[in-house]
Amino acid sequence: MQIENKVIVVTGGASGIGLALATRFVKEGATVVTVDRNAELGTKTAQEIGARFLSADLSLEEEVKGVIDDVLAKEGRIDLFCSNAGVALGAGPETPEHIWDLVYRINTMSHVWAARHLLPHFLERGEGYFLNTASAAGLLTELHSASYAVTKHAALAFAEWLAITYRNQGIKVSCLCPEGVWTPMIEHVPFLQQTAISTDELVEKTLEVLRRDGFLITTHETTVREFQNKAADYDNWIGKMAYLRGKSQALVEQARNKKGAGEAHP
pTM higher than 0.85 for the full model? Predict the structure, then answer.
């Protein structure tokens, strides 16, 4: 896919990965609409990069539909829909039901709702492109949040199904599965910070795959290698992940203690 002159929607576009993608799309000559629930930040950043902004709560189907209807009415079409919004909340099974539900709605169902309400437009035109942001956690796992790991697995599974089902009808699908990227989401995850890349690096890797209409977009060489290891020897992989989880927890505790010591002795 070439970006110039395309109409592109980017959800979760007020900051982080979404903003980085939107910024580059504008520079490449696209008409860009960013979407976020943070209206103040979203309006500010959209004005700065030359995009139009829509405020929406993507945990609600009617608001996802509202975004699509608005863009189709004002821009006339959508060429690429970047379903990028995501949240990282909760820990294990003890996480309250309303948190599980919120994470599921944003990390998984927002992709489903976007497809539900945009596919008729794409199919009528005989073309259209979904870029769904999942996570390397969708291929592997997340070491601390069960709800994040589960919903990102589901997001990847849905992207796969979408790509298979509509491939022969002109619909293209890519799934972005990054490891650590320097955004607010990894602020309290020192384990990911050790190998985190910049959002600019992520954008380059994303565009490289979009330009050849590829499906899987990863940001680190380790992702596919570990995915292969997982498939080849699941027991060994689980043992390795358990070991890494222990190391990650130690880093979190170390950072917490360091912060506490700093607060006590400014």
Answer: yes
